Amino acid sequence: MLIYIVMALFSILFFYLDQNVKRRYIIIRNKKFNCISICGFIAIIIPSVVAGLRDYSVGVDTSGYGKIVFRMALHNNFRDFYNSSNIFVKNVEPIYRIIVYIITELTSNIFWQFFIIEFIIVYFVYKALYDKKYACFGMFIFYCLFFCFSLNLMRQTITMAILLYGFRYIKERKIIKYILVVAISSLITTSALIGIFVYPLFFICGTDTVNKYGKKNNFFSKHRKMVDILILGVTFLVFVFTPKLIEILSIIKSSYGYQLDNISTDFNISYAALLMMLILEFPFFIYYRKANKKGAIFNFYTLVFIMATILWQTVSISQESYRVSLYLWFYIILAIPDLMKVINKKALLAVYYSTAGMAYFFLMFVYYNINSTVPYVLR
Question: What is the DSSP string of 95-122?
Answer without folding.
Answer: HHHHHHHHHHHH-S-THHHHHHHHHHHH
